[in-house]
Amino acid sequence: MKIFINLITLLMWTGAAFAQQAITGKVTDAKNTPIEGANIYLEGTYDGASSDADGNFNFETTEEGMQTLVVSMLSYEPHYEAGDVSYFKDLHIKLVASVNSLSGVTLTAGTFEAGDNSKVSVLKPLDIVTTAGAAGDFVAALQTLPGTTTVNEDGRLFVRGGTAGETQVFIDGLRVFQPFNATPNNTPTRGRFSPFLFKGISFSTGGYSAEYGQALSSVLLLNTADVPLQEKTDISIMSVGGGVGHTKIWGDQSLSINTSYMNLAPYEALIPSNQGVRWDSPYESISGEAVFRSKGEISMFKLYTGFNHTNLDIGQEDINFDDYVQFRLKNNNLYFNSSYKYFFANDWSLTSGASIAWDTNDIGIQEDKVYAKETSSHIKIKARKNFSNRYDLSFGAEYFNTNYDENYTDVDVDEFNSGYNEGLWAAFVESDIFLSNKFAMKLGVRGTHCSLLVGFKVSPRMSLAYKPGEDGQFSLAYGDFYQRPLTEVVKFTQNLDMEKASHYILNYQYINNGKTFRTEVYYKDYDQLVKYDTDAPQFNSDYTNLGGGYAKGIDVFWRDSKSIEHLDYWASYSYLDTKRDYRNFPEKATPNFAPKHNVSLVTKYWVDKLRSQVGLSYSFGSGRPYHNPNTSGFMTEETKSYNNLSFNWAYLINQQKILYFSVSNLLSFNNVSNYQYAEVPDANGVFNRRAITPPADSFFFVGFFWTISSDGKSNQLDNL
Please, where are the H alpha helices in 176-294? Predict the structure, then answer.
């Protein structure tokens, strides 16, 4: 019996030995370099091994039939082999490097980021506040970046040969219809919004996403903060006004409010009379903002609102009048913006939102009166699916509606009414594809239909990025962009087509150890620009889409915050070559807002012994073209160069209080933006002229900022 039992045991052991299968192979990367330490195993079993220094592996299994062999390694995509286990011999498995969101390639062509969470940021949110000459205005700070042009008598964003109307602003993905304060001609404006309410800024100088449209040149994306870090109260007192803000947090909800009052009477009293302005009533404004946030486990709701009231009464010099031309303005603006984002299972997310704005302007020019009212709204829905860390897809639709009415009454009490009601539908689809840590692409397309104009427009967009090393990368972008003609035209006629621009951009970016270098070359091709045959758009003008033009150039940016202790600085240079035939131009020419060379240098230095940050900003622009009717040719002469040196000083009284002093145009450069010529020549047949010098080109203010946090402390040192 014992012999029989031993025989049975031997037969069972022998059968098990014969049932085992050997699994062998080698693991390498795409370049056939062996990978050591990769995990190789049969799915659902404990059978497996690790690759050795030569990438080889082998193990045995008793499993039979169809099986799945899994090969995994940190920094590589998992690899799967499915088949009969008997075929898993002498395998050569090549692993593909996984996409690393921290060190992989990014799509950056044409885009500047300002946010603490963006690895490609070239600006930080507080740069908007602490840049000398910016005075807390995000647009003024962005004008220190390449691709922008300082048009000191306007104050809005002029990007790469485009007009200010070719740049659109969005908050949390929704359109802001009147992003700038109302001002008279030749007086710079400011953005309506406080930079403290935003966690990040994305400024695209071209080639932007298919998600956004109705902008021929650029878009500025402002994103409000999701969750405030602490409750606090901010108090500011300045030489030209003051403000107060407060943030309250309860559970997963929070409310931030901010209000300010500005009265430029102290400043206007110092403006020299030779600057061609007489202030009969000082510029005065009151504004406020509020952001409510409610954060769920897998959702986020935001409600943003802002209001602004502006009032002024001035006299402006005009060469065609013996006395000052009276200009009066009352502007009221109210804006609401709400967004909701929900995260589903399987990496789906849905974002929806709406914005609406009411804007009124009550204007008096001498005895003439203009009353304009605009009501605009935007509704948007967007879905996004992350299929993997290599591929995601987003798509959505949106609707814009604008209702504009204008009533003009002249000195003879004759009334003229104009306006329009526009509905614009758009849909978009876009995908980010990461082929590796070194190569990525963004492909998108946008379709637009406008009820006001003719036709349906399709806009393809594409971006490519290649990262040859750890710190540098190349990017390439192309896109078609359409925009409805501006209100000044469509309020008189709707028998037009959309204006078009095509962008071509090549970008190189290097980021390492506190140093950032960017350079871009670009070309913009303008087509279907609006032309008219009168000095300005009016009822009886003849309008066409026969205009066109181009803009090409190179932008360079350098920032260094590490090489010199306590010193942070950046420098930018832009070369612009542009000509266009549009509006009432008799021929293709460089417009007045487009100087050929622009330079900016911004420095910030912390003086530890003085508990102070000292900043200097210098801006240079070459002469701007203008038309001299006393000479032959059109737009053939140039103004003198633009120069501006601004200074700021911030003294940290304690962790809660900052004393702030700022001077714009410290050296009082007499900058000339253009010339106004008389409508009729003098007795010698000469058209006399006067220089246009913006009254707000020199500006100073003293401010005191006090922040009280929920625990009675505030780290203002980190802010500086």
Answer: 265-268
CA distance 538 to 201: 38
Question: Comparing C-alpha atoms, which of 147, 217, 151 is closest to residue 554?
Answer: 147
Distances (CA, A) of 196 to 135, 137, 256: 13, 11, 10
Q: Within 13 Å, how many C-alpha atoms sit on residue 285's CB side?
A: 25
* Whole-number Å distance between alpha carbons of 605 and 607: 6
pLDDT digits (tens, 9 = 90+) for 279-295: 888 889 999 999 999 99
Query: Count of CB atoms within 10 A of residue 370's CB?
Result: 16
Whole-angstrom distance, CA of residue 454 vs CA of residue 3 = 99
Closest CA to 356 of 402, 321, 418: 402
DSSP state of 640: P
Q: Give strand ranges (E) for 484-596.
A: 499-512, 515-532, 543-560, 567-581
> What are the structure tokens assigned to 611, written together?
């508990």
Measured at the CA of 626, the angle between CA 684 and CA 587, to 5 degrees, comes to 100
Return phi, psi of residue 716, to 5°: -70, -20
Q: What's the predicted TM-score (pTM) here?
A: 0.84
Q: Tell me the C-alpha to C-alpha distance, in Å, between residue 699 and each of 267, 453, 598, 663.
A: 7, 43, 21, 6
Give the Cα separation of 338 and 315 in Å (integer): 40
Cα 649-124-573 angle, rounded to 5 deg: 85
Q: How far apart are CA 641 and CA 628, in angstroms?
A: 17
Chain segment 291-339, per-residue pLDDT in tens? 999 998 889 999 999 999 999 998 988 898 888 999 999 999 999 999 9
Three-state secondary structure call for residue 716: helix
Distance of alpha carbon 621 from the chain centroid = 23
Do 435 and 424 contact (CB within 8 A), yes or no? no
Q: Are 383 and 395 in contact (CB under 8 A)?
A: yes
Q: Which structure tokens are listed for 137?
A: 């205005």
Query: How far is it, in rounded angstroms, from Cα 119 to Cα 473?
Result: 13
Q: How many CA atoms lie within 13 A of 538 on its CB side?
A: 8
Q: Residue 351: name the closest of 282, 295, 301, 420 by CA.
A: 301
